[in-house]
Specification:
The protein contains 11 helices and 7 strands. The protein has 295 residues and is of the alpha/beta class. Bound molecules: guanosine-5',3'-tetraphosphate.
Length: 295
């Protein structure tokens, strides 16, 4: 399902989003709460062009709650409202309608001043692949009303799906490309499952994940695999070995099967088995390299 983004795809996505936005009162921007920076489209401000925007930090159930709150404060400081949600279970979803209503108060005032009867608010969901757009739509409108997929390039008549009495949601979400600013962003996207495993070396992604865990969440990592503490984040090979031995990822001859360990670690991390994790903080500066040209 993940899209490989080339300049042509980006231009098309940009065009499609611009088209959608012409009819929209409020934009719902879906980010992954574990990587709010890397899962944000690099030109979201330009794309939404001053429309009221609500950020949803989705998969909040998998993210570190304290860091999610820091992100919300961070966005707020920039004048953008953000809410944590878990589209899968529905936690936080009820707050979306009222938040959209708050953001469009001036629009309502304008309608009233013109003597118009306020109509329902028109919203669209935007976000990178796998961030949870379909899941959220199903949550908001109920499965029966929701459209089947969000395949780009399939043109059909746009429809509005009712969310309560005040909100109407465009039936297809806008699919945006993630940041490609550097290798680290790519690894973070891969760790969370936002980009296909085939695009990067599985072992590299797992090594990155293990080093991150050993540095930032050492207790959670040690507890999960019954590792002796303290861990050495600089010796990733040793971590692979230790986990492999504990979990019986052994090939003939008693050697640890590194591929198996990589697969195990990523699967468990993504499923939240190591507890709630956030890979990037609001306060840390973004690393920008020469590659930062493709956004
Ligand atoms: P998309 O439309 O933006 O591409 O994303 P989609 O809704 O298909 O969701 C991508 C994956 O993320 C799905 O899992 C979905 O269940 C999961 N997901 C969405 N929202 C949440 C959330 O708030 N919390 C958690 N924990 N997961 C969420 P999948 O791997 O495709 O399938 P499965 O693992 O559910 O079988």
């Amino acid at each position: 399902k993940t899209i490989q983004w080339f300049p042509g795809h980006m231009a098309k996505a940009r065009r499609e989003v611009k088209e959608k936005l012409s009819q929209i009162d409020v934009v719902i921007e879906l980010l992954d709460a574990r990587i709010p920076r890397s899962s944000q489209n690099p030109i979201i401000e330009e794309l939404t062009d001053g429309k009221p925007r609500l950020i949803l930090l989705n998969k909040a159930d998998l993210a570190d709650e304290g860091k999610t709150n820091e992100w919300i404060a961070h966005f707020k400081k920039d004048g953008v409202d953000a809410l944590p949600v878990d589209a899968q279970s529905g936690t936080g979803v009820k707050r979306i309608g009222p938040a959209c209503r708050m953001l469009t108060q001036s629009l309502h005032d304008k309608w009233r001043a013109k003597g118009m009867k306020p109509r329902e608010l028109r919203a669209v969901i935007l976000g990178i692949p796998n961030v949870g757009k379909s899941t959220l739509m199903n949550r908001l409108v109920g499965k029966r009303q929701a459209p089947v997929g969000d395949r780009p390039g399939v043109t059909k008549k746009q429809q509005w799906l009712k969310v309560g009495s005040e909100l109407a949601l465009l039936d297809t979400p806008g699919i945006l490309w993630p940041k490609f600013s550097n290798q680290e962003v790519g690894l973070r996207l891969a760790v969370t499952g936002a980009i296909k495993d085939e695009l990067l070396d599985y072992g590299d992604v797992a090594a990155y994940a293990l080093q991150f865990l050993a540095r930032t969440y050492p207790h959670q990592l040690a507890a999960r695999y019954d590792l002796s503490y303290p861990l050495d984040p600089e010796d990733i090979g040793e971590l692979f070995e230790a986990i492999g031995k504990k979990r019986g990822c052994i090939v003939r001859g008693g050697m640890v099967d590194m591929d198996k360990v990589a697969e195990l670690v990523l699967r468990e991390l993504r499923a939240g088995k190591m507890g709630r994790l956030t890979l990037e903080t609001a306060s840390e500066k973004e690393v920008v390299t020469d590659e930062d040209s493709r956004g």
